[in-house]
Amino acid sequence: MKLIVIGAVAAGTSAAAKARRNQDDLDITIYEKDIDISYSGCGLPYYIGNEVESIETLTPRDPAFFKKKYNIDIHTAHLVTEIDHDNQQVHVKNLKTGEIFTDAYDKLVIATGAKSIAPPIDGVDLPHVHALRTVQDARQIKGYIDDHQPKKAVIVGTGFIGFEMLENLIERDIEVVIVEMKSHITSNLDPDMADYLEDKLIKKGIDVRTDTTVKAIQANHVKIDETETIPAELVILATGVKPNVALAKAIGVEIGETGAIKVNERMETNLKNVYSCGDCIETFQRQTNKPVYRPLGSTANKTGRIAGDQLSGGSLEFKGILGTSIYKLFEFTIANTGLSEVEARAEGFDIEVSHNIKPDKPAYFNGTEMNIKAIADRASKKLLGVQIVGQEGVDKRIDVFSTLITYGATVDELFHLDLAYAPPFSTTKDPVHYSGMILDNALSKGRPLKTSDDVRELEANGEKIQIVDTRIEKQHLANCVDGAVSMPHAVIRARLNELDKNLPTVTYCNSGTTGNAVQNILLNHGFNDVSNLSGGNKFYQATKKTRDQ
């Protein structure tokens, strides 16, 4: 049996290698239009920033490796120009020699990946304008910086690549402005957590422009409206990617509602003996079973392995994704898994939201704060999604949360997790435990939460509430929630008569613990409606600039 794979990055090589493991007598050929194969695309920004010294470390495998280890023939610089599925042939052009030939297959895997989206603006084809998708892109960007020594750059877009390039260009002593056309940075976070991250970046001196559209790119600057320009000797377009589906579409492969190739859980297309995997396909969200397009290296490898297994007699099936992602930005780590608040509400869930600001380990081991936003379903009490912005230990926690969501954990179960504890690694009650305790208190123990957005909405609607700042007077005078009265925890019992027991009340402290303690006191003294401010004053102030505009 002859297997042809189109594409030799993550998914294509995974499919071929798994098929070979299952069937040693397969005749396997891969055609790749690029000159590099099986590379780590996620490491490319760090090569540009000189953190990764050699590009070869990101491209550890070449065609000779696959031939020797797997007896797989990989032809680079070979473009598949057409698929003739009726006759089960592909038409191939050797990009080095110009030769055109055909090759026959019994089974076909389409792993054509994705390509960068170039926005429809003047100047995207100028020599100082680059997108980063392939190893060749990285070589060109690094070469341009080495040769021209630009001092000012503009990055368009605040996705993973945009932010990773931000950090690495700054490492090259380039002054960077990052531009985002949406009202919030980074689409993998809810607006409030995006604002929290933006506040951190602004305090670091990063020039972030949201609600800003690039109108044109010119030789030494970027034009953002009729009168304002931003100096730019280098422009990085990090405006997303779209799936390469032209070959598949031309032979009648069904395209899904996301614009990517539609496959089933076995990576089969609607055409017999044609499979697809990687960044050219749509997958489905595990919690909703709805199609999504999330081109990530981890998913590409997984879907490639499934395609290779299925076409060679195996039984692996795709179980869906939670959209788990993580990236580094300076000293910060940003991660998410499961449904966001926006997505959960759109799906019709009645949700509880908590913001839990806790250190990853004790202060005497240099613990640093992480902000964990957790979303839970009020009806089932199941955890739906989590977002984290922090410095240390974020990767550990997001993987725990991803596992919990995968297996349908309810919030009360989080406290009972037997997580590893020692002071160099965690606090005695881990931040994961605290998130469960906060949500369980809200859903089952009569200790409701209100978010900063909830409070702002109540005030905007003219509803009368009393807001109690439980911190010491000095902290209250430095900054406080709008309309709050100062009643420190230490004196609250003596001043209960100053509050109206029948008026909706919100308590808060810096991050939530003392606010919850005072919430308990008020409820125990007959107050009817008392909520704790989720994330406390820290989160309120961090999101204040953007949210109050």
TrEMBL record:
Q: Which cofactor does it need?
A: FAD
Q: Identify the residues that the record assigns to the Rhodanese domain, covering every copy.
A: 461-544
**Superkingdom per UniProt:** Bacteria
- Annotated keywords: FAD, Flavoprotein, Oxidoreductase, Redox-active center
- Gene Ontology molecular function, alphabetical: oxidoreductase activity
Q: Which Pfam families match?
A: Pyr_redox_2, Pyr_redox_dim, Rhodanese
Q: Which family does it belong to?
A: Belongs to the class-III pyridine nucleotide-disulfide oxidoreductase family.
Q: Which PANTHER family match?
A: NAD(P)H SULFUR OXIDOREDUCTASE (COA-DEPENDENT), PYRIDINE NUCLEOTIDE-DISULFIDE OXIDOREDUCTASE DOMAIN-CONTAINING
What's the protein called, per UniProt? NADPH-dependent 2,4-dienoyl-CoA reductase, sulfur reductase
